[in-house]
Amino acid sequence: MKKWVGKVRMLGLFSLMAIFLTACGKENLTALAPKGYSAERSFEVIIISILVMTVVFIVVMAIFTYVLIKYRRKKGQEDYIPEQIEGNKTLEIVWTIIPILLLVIIAVPTIATTYDLADESQKEDSINVNVTGKQFWWNFDYVNEGIQTSQDLYIPVDTRVYLNMISGDVIHSFWVPTLAGKMDVNPENENVMYIEAYEEGVYWGKCAEFCGDSHSLMDFKIVVVSEEEYDQWIENMGTPTEVELETASAQEGRDLFEQSCLSCHAIDGATQAPAIGPNLTNFGNRTMIAGVLEHNKEELVEWIVDPASKKPGNGMLNAPYLQGGPGSEISTEDAEKIADYLLELKSTEVVPEFEPFED
Ligand code: HEC
Ligand SMILES: [Cu+2]
């Protein structure tokens, strides 16, 4: 092999790594910088496996290189055959036992962690949230607090929160890499996992199971706040006050909303059963729109007028006003009024700091 071939290959490898690793730049969307209990335990298992594999690689490479050099064909010894070790009992035993030991080193912490992360002993005394995955959004139902919300899941810092997960349609997978591993969300059986975050902040969540047209847009956030903020949030959400609408536009927007949107979206009280669409009680406080769009009026108007352009195949496309129902169309002007209204729906002062698209 020519000398430069190796160099070119290394260059290729490094450029590939650069491409893949730069994709890991989004804050709080990585399993490699855990900020929660489950993610930290899983990370330890990753590290143990990598360490074991690295040791194996180094030892094998060392022996390989040694043998390659020592037993290379030498001048004058073309017919030399080194001592044959076929059927050597000691060696056979050694290279059977070593892999078994290595597997045990990996298996023990892996199994212990698996059981630890499935532990439900504290479920009764913890915050419980029923999570429903739907094409292509998430509903969060705080069981004991009687609160419904969607897309943004608020939890207190340093506290274990149990998530009881079910799907409203096809199989999804709930994944907040910085806080915990993945968990399948099935239509039939409830899967339970817990999360506990060490630091306040907003954490990105993704659906990790291909579930349809907008699967890759089925994002959500976990908003981790202090204990006091969480209590305040629960109180505000549980008793949402009638919002004083500031502008005439927002007031007209409310009427339009009641005509065309209320059949699927709850806004007057967080306690309603999950409707067909996300509960919009605190929509003005959301981190994003529909999990993926920047939270501003422009995006919101575009979403209302043409949700298919933002999230193909989503459930809002069944809205009568988009189906060409008689006299039902919503003009951009009307959508702006509705947007003014929705952006004023701020039921609480607990608002996370969040810049989704900063670079
Ligand atoms: C047929 C039921 C239906 C109707 C009617 C409907 N929507 Fe929706 N809406 C949905 C569904 C389902 C979603 C979730 C889409 C997704 O993210 O996959 C949604 C999402 C949204 C969101 C994003 C919510 C979030 O949590 O970020 C907004 C805002 C919204 N709708 C506003 C409206 C407005 C305004 C109207 C009336 C003009 C309306 N919707 C009418 C079903 C509906
Ligand atoms: Cu999904």
Q: How far do the termini sit from each other? A: 43 Å
List low-confidence stretches: none
How many E strands? 12
Q: Based on the structure given, which CATH architecture of the largest domain is correct?
A: Sandwich
CATH class placement of the largest domain: Mainly Beta
CATH H-tier superfamily of the largest domain: Cupredoxins -  blue copper proteins
Structural class: alpha+beta
Mean model confidence by pLDDT: 90
Strand percentage lies at 15-25%
SSE string: HHHEEEEEEEEEEHHEEHHH
Provide an overview of this structure.
- The structure is a single chain.
- The protein is an alpha+beta fold and 359 residues long.
- The protein has three domains: 37-74 and 81-118, no CATH class; 127-226, Immunoglobulin-like (Sandwich); 248-343, Immunoglobulin-like.
- 37% of the residues lie in helices and 16% in strands.
- The chain has helices at 3-22, 37-70, 89-117, 227-238, 248-260, 297-305, 307-310, 332-343; strands spanning 127-134, 137-142, 147-150, 152-156, 161-167, 172-175, 183-185, 191-195, 201-207, 220-225, 288-289, 293-294.
- The chain has a five-stranded mixed β-sheet with strand order 3-2-1-5-8.
- Helix 2 (37-70) runs antiparallel to helix 3.
- The longest helix is centred in the first third of the chain and has 34 residues, at 37-70.
- The two termini are 43 Å apart.
- Residues 136-137, 150-151, 257, 260-261, 263-265, 276-278, 286, 289-291, 303-304, 311, 314-316, 318-319, 321, 330, 338, 342 line the site of heme C.
- The site of copper (II) ion (CU) has 7 residues, from loops.
